[in-house]
């Protein structure tokens, strides 16, 4: 029997030995998550291109639309400036460039931290490292997995846009802009994974860097209409924006992306050699010898585990709501000379007044964001299970349903908090603009909260996957992506009503402005309750960490 067979380190093992095996393992573990991300992002770009092509068929319509977008600082802060209106590709890059780059960065952060810090925190990496695995192999495998995901995304986006008739160069530039953002924040995650012993904190630190980059870019774009502000150039997301797909294709910007990626990944490699396995470079803060009375019980533990994510999402909802509210007063002016845009807003937000239709659409988008949070907080059950953290709790006087419900409080009530924050922020911003805070604050807060039943249905479906098919739990993100495509983009793409009805968001009355009935809300709440009960039943009957 060889040293490899018994797991004894072999003399002379290189620092990256075993990278190939770990990479194949990582890709196998992410065989659902990565395709779901790539599908969702590619579908968003594709559907945006198709809808814009339907709305703006002539050069004059496109240039007028691009000009109207650029005069609104709030829209520039959200999407960036439209550098050109000559092609549908240029408008697609404007609509999806900044937001798509941020989402791609988030995807890469989750991938890298999952295969580095999470593996160490769970103890699996220590077991693997007892064999022929080099010190830098896990980090290399995580980065290669992120590189693979971003490369596939770039190819998918470029191919899809080319098939739709857009220029090959511009399509490739947009695909590389998205992938470049992903690689930069993969490097950021490589650094944060070395700083702390907690995967949750590592994700939080990397997410904070991503959020700061987005805010810097948004502030710079709000101040200038051509992305020339120093704040834009201080942000990695501002670099990918200035690649300008379909509007000049500044290929030299990719040099900045490559340099940033090289520096961050290089820093990650230096830091990983300076710490012990399982430890972080930042000193761990020791807790008290005895836990506080407030930590007694499974809910208290769940709150401690989930509160950071809830706070971060709440901050994001406050910013998003304020941006939507600041645009509301100018929406009529934006579309007054564009009947097609007004028609699109009404198809998505209902046939009422244009401002009401816009806010109904905005509240629907907040509802989809809340659904993303609901899926994430529900799947925390799976990460606790696979990390072997649930088993010690369930070995005590804590039943499975009680433990699961302690985490399900967050997709149930946490989403209400997020929707209330987003709606109130929009109401305050819009009310301050038109001088009617007392009227708009309750109206838009209520409109946002009206999205909750559809969000609960989404979370309940994620719970069913966790309860009955735990290894396929990540498919919940595919369900979310399908709801996003059918519920939000379906009316613009004129999808068949049968497909639109697959999304619970389709069945919500439009708010504000639409006719309100209690029946749709009650039916969705009932469906969510029944589906959740099915998911809990499956969890009670299966083995832990089983199929």
TrEMBL record:
Organism: Streptomyces fildesensis
Keywords, alphabetical: Membrane, Transmembrane, Transmembrane helix
TM spans (from-to): 36-59, 93-116, 137-161, 167-189, 201-220, 251-272, 308-327, 357-375, 408-432, 444-468, 475-500, 520-539
Protein name: ABC transporter permease
């Amino acid at each position: 029997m060889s040293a490899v067979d018994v797991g004894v380190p072999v003399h002379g093992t290189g620092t990256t030995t075993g990278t190939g095996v770990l990479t194949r393992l990582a890709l196998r573990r992410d065989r659902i998550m990565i395709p779901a991300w790539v599908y969702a992002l590619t579908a968003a770009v594709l559907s945006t291109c198709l809808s814009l092509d339907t709305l703006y068929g002539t050069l004059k319509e496109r240039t007028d639309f691009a000009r109207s977008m650029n005069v609104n600082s709030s829209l520039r802060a959200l999407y960036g400036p439209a550098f050109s209106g000559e092609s549908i590709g240029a408008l697609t890059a404007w609509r999806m460039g900044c937001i798509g780059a941020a989402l791609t960065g988030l995807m890469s952060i989750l991938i890298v931290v999952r295969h580095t810090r999470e593996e160490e925190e769970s103890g699996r990496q220590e077991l693997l490292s007892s064999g022929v695995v080099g010190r830098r192999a896990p980090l290399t495998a995580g980065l290669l997995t992120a590189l693979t995901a971003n490369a596939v995304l770039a190819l998918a986006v470029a191919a899809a846009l080319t098939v739709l008739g857009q220029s090959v160069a511009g399509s490739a530039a947009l695909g590389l802009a998205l992938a470049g953002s992903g690689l930069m924040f993969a490097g950021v995650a490589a650094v944060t994974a070395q700083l702390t012993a907690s995967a949750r904190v590592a994700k939080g630190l990397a997410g904070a860097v991503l959020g700061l980059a987005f805010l810097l870019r948004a502030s710079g774009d709000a101040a200038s209409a051509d992305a020339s502000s120093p704040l834009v150039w201080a942000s990695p997301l501002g670099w990918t924006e200035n690649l300008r797909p379909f509007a000049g294709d500044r290929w030299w910007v990719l040099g900045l992306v490559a340099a940033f990626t090289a520096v961050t990944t290089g820093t990650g490699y230096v830091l990983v050699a300076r710490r012990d396995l399982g430890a972080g470079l930042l000193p761990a803060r020791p807790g008290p010898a005895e836990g506080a009375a407030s930590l007694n019980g499974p809910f208290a533990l769940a709150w401690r585990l989930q509160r950071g994510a809830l706070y971060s999402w709440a901050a994001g909802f406050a910013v998003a709501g304020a941006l939507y509210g600041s645009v509301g007063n100018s929406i009529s002016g934006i579309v007054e000379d564009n009947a097609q845009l007004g028609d699109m807003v009404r198809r998505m937000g209902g046939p009422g007044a244009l401002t009401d239709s816009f806010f109904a659409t905005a509240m629907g988008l907040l509802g989809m964001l809340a659904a993303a949070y609901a899926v994430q907080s529900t799947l925390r059950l799976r990460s606790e299970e696979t990390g072997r953290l649930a088993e010690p709790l369930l070995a005590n006087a804590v039943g499975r349903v009680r433990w699961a419900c302690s985490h399900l409080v967050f997709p149930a009530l946490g989403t209400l908090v997020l929707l209330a924050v987003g709606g109130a922020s929009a109401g305050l911003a819009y009310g301050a603009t038109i001088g009617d805070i007392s009227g708009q604050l309750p109206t838009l807060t209520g409109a946002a909260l009206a999205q909750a039943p559809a969000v609960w249905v989404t979370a309940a479906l994620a719970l069913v996957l966790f309860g009955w098919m735990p290894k396929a739990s990540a498919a919940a993100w595919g369900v979310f992506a399908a709801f996003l495509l059918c519920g939000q983009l379906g009316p613009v793409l004129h999808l068949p009503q049968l497909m639109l009805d697959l999304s619970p968001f389709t069945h919500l009355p439009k708010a504000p402005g639409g006719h309100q009935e209690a029946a749709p809300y009650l039916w969705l709440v009932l469906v969510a309750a029944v589906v959740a009960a099915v998911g809990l039943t499956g969890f009670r009957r299966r083995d832990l960490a089983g199929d």
